[in-house]
Amino acid sequence: MPESRAHFHGISGKAVADVVRLERHNNRLYPGDIGRALRGWTDKVRSPARDLLDDFGGCPCGCTSDYRDRAVLDIALRSLTGKTARELRRVVGAADDLFLSRTLANPWADPRAPWWEQRI
């Protein structure tokens, strides 16, 4: 069943249909992944500062589910084209900007890691 459009605030119906189509045809995504990731990432960046980063999330590599949300969004942004990509990029970009404004560059981070994992 397609993800509810309510999870894609600020994105047109056609773009949501493109996202659903992408989830159906991309072997790294499941139905609803992008909507859940968008909701998770925007919730994360709006959370209290003390909850913003969890360096001790239990994973040996230091990743958290919130970073997986951003990784799913990265897959979507790299896979979508045209107006749909621009619409999603605008929404994700606003959350990214908020994340960047509330975090600092980690000088000890692996430079090969995605940019969102190089923040403290």
Short recap of the structure:
By secondary structure, the chain is mainly alpha-helical. It is 56% helix and 0% strand.
SSE topology:
Blueprint (H helix, E strand, L loop, with lengths): L12 H13 L7 H14 L2 H4 L12 H15 L2 H21 L18
Helix pairs in contact: 1-5, 2-4, 2-5, 4-5
> What characterizes the major β-sheet?
none
Question: Ranges with pLDDT <50 over ≥5 residues?
Answer: 1-6, 56-60
Shape: globular
Helix content: 55-70%
Number of helical stretches of at least 4 residues: 5
Give the strand tally. 0
Cα gyration radius (Å): 15 Å
Overall structural class, as computed from helix and strand content, comes to: mainly alpha
Give the CA-CA distance, first to last residue.
37 Å
- Element order: H for helix, E for strand: HHHHH
As a percent range, the share of strand residues is: under 5%
Number of structural domains:
1
- Average pLDDT metric: 83
Please provide a written account of the structure:
The chain has about 120 residues and is mainly α. Helices cover about 55% and strands about 0% of the residues. It has one domain (about 10-45, about 55-120). Helix 1 (about 15-25) crosses helix 5 (about 80-100), helix 2 (about 35-45) crosses helix 4 and helix 4 packs antiparallel against helix 5 (about 80-100). The protein is globular and about 40 Å long.
